[in-house]
Amino acid sequence: MMTNAQMEQIPGFLFFDHIAVSVRPGELEAHVQAYKTMGFKELHREEILGTDQVREVLLQVGDGPNLLQLIEPLNEGSPVARQIEKNGGRGGIVHVALRVADIQKAFDYLQANGFKLVDKAPRKGSRGTMVFFVHPKATENAAFGYLLEVVQEGAHGGH
After folding, report:
1. What is the CATH architecture assignment of 12-152?
2. pTM to 2 decimal places
3. What is the 3-state secondary structure (H, E, C) of the chain?
4. CA distance 120 to 156
5. What is the pLDDT, as a whole number, of residue 155?
6. Residue environment code for 41-54, b if the CB has 16+ CB neighbours within 10 A, otherwise e
7. Which of 11, 20, 39, 91 is positioned for an S-S bond with 106, CB 3.0–4.6 A?
8. 73 and 22 Cβ atoms separated by less than 8 Å
9. What do you get for the CA distance between the two ends of the chain, in Å?
10. Do 18 and 66 form a contact (C-beta atoms < 8 A)?
11. For the chain, which residues make up each domain, given as ranges?
12. Does residue 100 contact residue 152 with C-beta atoms inside 8 Å?
């Protein structure tokens, strides 16, 4: 078993922070209710404007650190609306997010090791986090095939 000190070595991945799932416009509440029926707890909701243009709800799985992020596009200009369109009009997994101890260290490490990063630098995410994304064609030799988000918890800690 690795110690916390070892886990926090560069690039410092700790655990899966969340899985983001898109829902079609107007269906967010129905999805939230379905997950609540399964025992998930709603922790946070927020509208994210700028380039994202989505409404998000974060749900906690059990008592663990792993979250489910439901995201509904606010308009047709949202990248999530385009993802739903590409997916034949259905919602689905948008990205998988991993938590890190130090976002800048993780960014510098992945960049130095040839990972294709979507963002030029870590940026503000929802709930006070800092984030950056790794392209689905992660490296020259390993195309993960999904968008990976790297997340550092906000200064307030917890969820």
Report:
1. Roll (3.10)
2. 0.85
3. CCCHHHHCCCCCEEEEEEEEEECCCCCHHHHHHHHHHCCCEEEEEEEECCCCCEEEEEEECCCCCCEEEEEEECCCCCHHHHHHHHCCCCCCEEEEEEEECCHHHHHHHHHHCCCCECCCCCEECHHHCEEEEECCCCCCCCCCCCEEEEEECCCCCCC
4. 25
5. 63
6. eeeeeeebeeebbb
7. 11
8. yes
9. 26
10. yes
11. 12-152
12. yes
Instruction: State residue 5's pLDDT score.
Output: 60
Lookup: tokens for 116: 């294709």
60 HSE (CA, 13 A, CB side): 10
Yes or no: say if 119 and 135 are a contact pair by the CB < 8 Å rule: no
* Cα angle: 122, vertex 128, 133; to 5 degrees: 30
- pLDDT tens for the 159 residues of the chain, in order: 545 565 456 788 999 999 999 999 999 999 999 999 999 999 999 998 888 899 999 999 999 999 999 999 999 999 999 999 999 999 999 999 999 999 999 999 999 999 999 999 999 988 889 999 999 999 999 999 999 999 999 865 444
Tokens of 38: 């399964």
Tally of CB atoms within 10 A around 63: 6
